[in-house]
Amino acid sequence: MNLAVRRWAPHTLALLGLLVLLYPLAWLLATSLKPAEEVVTSLDLWPSSLEWSNYTTALEGVSGVAVSRLLGNTLLIATGAALGNVLSCSLAAYAFARLRFRMSREMFAFMVATLMLPHHVVLIPQYIIFNQLGMVDSYWPLILPKFLATEAFFVFLIVQFMRGLPRELEESARIDGCGPFRTYLSITLPLTRPALITTAIFTFIWTWNDFFTQMIYLFAPEKFTITLALRSFVDQSSTSAYGPMFAMSVISVLPIVLFFFVFQRYLVQGMATTGLKG
Fold first, then answer.
1. In terms of Cα–Cα distance, which of 157, 162, 194 is closest to 275?
2. What is the C-alpha to C-alpha distance for residues 178 and 187, in angstroms, rounded to an integer?
3. What's the distance, Cα to Cα, between the start and end of the chain in Å?
4. What is the DSSP letter of 186?
5. Is the Cα dihedral 223, 225, 231, 234 positive or negative?
6. Cα–Cα distance, 222 to 41 (Å, whole number)
7. How far is CA 206 from the centre of its chain?
8. 277/205 Cα distance (integer angstroms)
9. What are the two backbone dihedrals, phi and then psi, of residue 133, each rounded to the nearest 5 degrees?
10. What whole-number distance in Å separates Cα of residue 145 and Cα of residue 143?
């Protein structure tokens, strides 16, 4: 009996914890199908009647912009940000982890120290720069910095992974005549795949869920992302359209949930093999 309790107790606790974590999603899905008056008056999880018209209203979008256009805008920004972080952060990490140059340790320490710098401190200078370049109300301020290795967290993540790779492979490539860039492309980059996938996944999810930065730089409704559209939907619909508001919330969350389930194996692999060496 004691053996059975010990065997099933962890699984039971894990299942209870999973139910607690999934409850907000279940509540969001159920609320998106409730009539407007029932959202604020009823505490029941399941609606008394299914209001599918909430999704019809939500799919119409905001300010004449359909949800498909909003999702496409968000996908464009998230994909561009993920690609930029993978390319630029891997190059910076390779320089710190494999190349020897003057003050490399000091520069790496300074880069890691920027992790403690609040995002709001650099927000105004960045906005002034992009405004002078005429890039405000475009996607460039949201994508271009990712190609400049501005995410110190991902540089550090990839550096820790690269430091655990055997140097003999790079030395063999150097003997065969490969330069640093060719060695990076042919040897180091393929071996760093788990860390690169982890970087791409986190960047994609964080960019998809971003609201504040997109609100600062995007003004035209046709350029809105799904998060900005959700906020605009609340503003223009007031308190009488809670159902469509939650329906749009479900639409905005669904791609991220599907994305996570598709790439969760790579995410676990990358997190399990990154940051444990060096």
1. 157
2. 10
3. 45
4. I
5. positive
6. 35
7. 2
8. 26
9. -85, -5
10. 6
CA distance 121 to 124: 7
Main-chain phi, psi angles of 48, to 5 degrees: -70, -30
Tell me how crowded residue 8 is: count the other CB atoms within 10 A of its CB: 11
Query: Angle between the 67-98 and 152-162 helix axes, to the nearest 10 degrees?
Result: 50
> Quick one: tokens of 241?
């359209």
Rounded-to-integer distance, Cα 28 and Cα 153, Å: 32
**pLDDT digit string, tens, across residues 165-213:** 888 888 888 888 888 888 888 889 888 988 898 899 899 999 999 999 9
Asked if 229 contacts 114 with a C-beta cutoff of 8 angstroms, the reply is no
pLDDT tens-place string over residues 216-236: 999 998 999 999 888 776 655
- Look at phi and psi of residue 55 and say left if phi exceeds 0, alpha if psi is from -120 to 50, else beta: alpha
Helix 67-98 to helix 242-273 angle (10° resolution) is: 20
Give the Cα separation of 202 and 50 in Å (integer): 35
Q: Look up the pTM and report it.
A: 0.85
Rounded Cα distance between 149 and 152, Å, is 7
Q: Are 228 and 114 in contact, with CB atoms under 8 Å apart?
A: no
